[in-house]
Design goal:
This protein is α/β, with parallel strands linked by helices and about 350 residues long. It is built from 11 helices and 12 strands. The strands form 3 sheets. A 7-stranded mixed β-sheet has the order 2-8-7-6-5-3-4, with helices on both faces. The protein has a 3-stranded antiparallel β-sheet with strand order 9-12-11, with helices on one face. α1 packs across α8, α3 crosses α4 and α9 runs parallel beside α11. The model has no long low-confidence stretch (mean pLDDT about 95).
């Protein structure tokens, strides 16, 4: 997987306007309750000025949520921004980035922009191959997008202790499953965890993400990221959610997990074999995924289709939301597969 930035194409956004959008793994229960109030209280005059350069109020709230010191937090315009900045900060042209295959599709894009080459590693050989590749950056995603697979702490620990690299662990879906490796940070100077407000925290429209790492990694990533990446309004809303809505967030995440398991059972009984998932989505292997996606779209339902995934083949990735929505999806799926 070596490309140049001239070959990159725009991210293909799911068409808007579907009655039911199960394509992007956001919180289908909506935004948390404090958001409307905080937006109402936000003074317009504040918006003629720049926000704080590195979001100290938000860092304090995140540090408390993550159980670390605020010197260990870097924020960004979505976790995309943190990932991109980290890859730019730690990768030099010609370096190698190693990652699971399949995994988050933006990582090869960020690597390519920084003139890194990318090597995708099969699940079965993850620990051994990560040790032998001698990459400068290792990217691990748990629960993984698009498979939903959870990596054990032992696996992450083994890879990190063997690595002579920056190890990025993307925990975008950690509120839905798996164990965070935040407790490993004290032992590993080369570890950067990234997370987002776009999934369980219900704030995808505000574009806020963060990284957790040693202060040395944080300041290197911030140096590359630059100031003012989190807007004033996003900082206030996100801090407000961490201060007021954690119960709501946990409740909805729990419901997503219960519905995910129920959804998996319902798919099994229709003859599908979704992959085991620790996230708020299921990956369902199906032949001709693009065709099925398009037939579902004709019925007003958006999902994400993948073609020829390594070791899996074609598959649909479907976000889990409130049960009535999943029931509508199941009915539509049974119809389009006839
Ligand atoms: N990491 C993973 C694994 C994701 O699935 C996503 C969103 N699809 C992101 C990072 C980026 O999310 P955001 O920029 O909204 O924080």
């Amino acid at each position: 997987m070596t490309a140049t930035s001239r070959e990159l194409v725009r991210y293909s956004e799911t068409e808007r306007g579907c009655r039911i959008d199960l394509s992007d793994n956001t919180n289908l229960w909506g935004a948390p309750p404090s958001v409307a109030r905080v937006l109402g209280e936000f003074g317009a005059p504040e918006l003629s000025r720049y926000p704080s350069a590195y979001s100290p109020r938000l860092k304090r709230a995140i540090a408390k949520y993550a159980g670390v010191d605020e010197s260990m937090i870097v924020t960004g315009c979505g976790s995309d921004d943190v990932l991109d900045s980290a890859i730019r900060a730690f990768g030099a042209p010609g370096d190698l980035l190693a990652m699971q295959n399949p995994s988050f599709s933006m990582i090869p894009v960020f690597a390519t922009v920084s003139s890194l080459s990318v090597k995708g590693v099969d699940r079965a050989r993850l620990v051994d191959e990560m040790a032998s590749l001698d990459a400068q950056i290792i990217y691990l995603c748990t629960p993984n997008n698009p498979t939903g697979e959870v990596l054990s702490l032992e696996t992450i620990e083994e890879i990190t202790s063997n690595a002579n690299a920056l190890v990025i662990v993307d925990e975008a879906y950690i509120e839905f499953g798996g164990t965070s490796c935040v407790n490993m940070l004290g032992r590993f100077e080369n570890l950067l965890i990234t997370r987002t407000f776009s999934k369980a925290l219900g704030l995808a429209g505000f574009r806020i993400g963060y990284g957790i790492a040693s202060p040395a990694i944080v300041s290197r990533v911030e140096g590359v990221r630059g100031p003012y990446k989190v807007s004033a309004i996003s900082e206030v809303v996100a801090a407000g959610v961490l201060e007021n809505d954690l119960e709501w967030v946990a409740e909805k995440a729990q419901e997503a997990v219960a519905n995910r398991n129920r959804f998996a059972r319902a798919l099994n009984s229709l003859g599908f074999t979704p992959m085991e998932s620790g996230a708020n989505f299921l990956l369902i292997p199906v032949a001709e995924a693009r065709e099925i996606e398009s037939r579902l779209r004709d019925r007003g339902i958006a999902v994400r289709a993948f073609e020829r995934l390594n070791g899996i083949g074609d598959a649909l990735r479907v976000t889990v939301g409130p049960w009535p929505v999943m029931e509508e999806f199941l009915e539509a799926l049974a119809e389009v597969m006839k």
